[in-house]
Write a structure and sequence with these properties.
This protein is mainly beta. The protein has one helix and 20 strands. The strands form five sheets. Strands 1, 2, 3, 4 and 5 form a five-stranded antiparallel beta sheet that branches. Strands 10, 11, 12, 13 and 14 form a five-stranded antiparallel beta sheet that branches. The longest helix is centred in the N-terminal third of the chain and has 4 residues. The radius of gyration is 22 Å and the shape is globular.
């Protein structure tokens, strides 16, 4: 390569945190300034082990009934980190047999963390929360109680220990972004973050000092756009061209400037056509 490539040896440590035979998805991580860490993820217990599912058949089975083994459902797990290492034992945040879709975790500024997740209860997805502190889990708190599905929670903690949770809330035939704030041990009422007439999806959140920022993407004007709202302001357009702009992520730097990253592609990317287009 005529000197155009260089290699440098660096420290590298890979730890496998979920060695079980379950299907593990959607990890979320939060690190404290003292080196403490909290990792949550959901696991699905299949009815048939993955090796059995991948087995090659040498001849046609006489009966396929063995494929209909009942599954064990979802379960939410927590791994904690103290000092420079992850604790070897994981903690069950929920019981098994649940129907969970995505979770989030944020440190509480006091050595503990708040865990939030979306779970189907009586046929409807709701947002639930649970506090972890001093090696113990608190009671499960239900943050939503609505007729529509509430999905994809995200969470962040302010400098004063206040916690904000945001999620996708199904209401009036579409999804909108809503939030709740925990301050001084009490949850405030729900607040609507987005103000669009069309669907809003995929919230992202970050905090700096006592200020929170929430971003999302929307299909309000017929293409995917990214919007942002600070906790002390109004919704702001971030990327609203005719191109595909979606799935934002947020981070404040040490000086308090907010950085926004998002996916971008050309016009019509991600659109449904033909039989999948309800307006076709």
């Amino acid at each position: 390569m005529d000197g155009r490539v260089s290699a440098q040896r660096t420290a590298y440590t890979l730890r496998r945190l979920s060695p079980e035979r379950t299907e593990d998805d959607y990890p979320a991580l939060s690190m404290g300034g003292d080196g403490s860490g909290f990792l949550v993820y959901q696991s699905f217990t299949p009815g048939i082990d993955r090796d059995e599912r991948a087995k090659r058949w040498e001849k046609e089975p006489a009966d396929l009934g063995f494929l209909s083994q009942p599954t064990g459902g979802d379960q939410l797990w927590l791994h904690t980190r103290s000092g420079n290492s992850w604790n070897p034992e994981r903690i069950a945040v929920t019981e098994g047999g649940r129907d969970i879709y995505k979770s989030a975790v944020t440190t509480d500024g006091k050595g503990g963390a708040w865990i939030v997740w979306s779970e189907r209860i009586d046929g409807n997805f709701e947002i639930l929360a649970r506090h972890y502190a001093n090696g113990a889990l608190g009671k499960i708190e239900k943050l939503t109680e609505s007729a529509g599905n509430d999905l994809c929670p995200v969470a962040a903690t302010g400098a004063d220990g206040s916690v904000m949770v945001a999620w996708m809330a199904g209401a009036n035939g579409k999804f909108e972004i809503r939030s709740r704030m925990l301050r001084d041990g009490a949850w405030a009422a729900e607040s609507r973050v987005s103000s669009h007439d069309g669907n809003c999806w995929n919230p992202a959140i970050a905090a700096h000092g006592g200020r929170f920022a929430i971003a999302w993407d929307t299909y309000a004007k017929g293409d995917y756009d990214v919007w942002l709202k600070f906790s002390d302001g109004e919704p702001l357009p971030i990327a609203t061209t005719a191109d595909y702009e979606a799935r934002a992520s947020l981070a404040f730097d040490k000086d308090g400037a907010l950085w926004i990253a998002f996916e971008k592609s050309g016009p019509t990317w991600g659109k449904d056509w033909g039989a999948y287009d309800s307006a076709d």
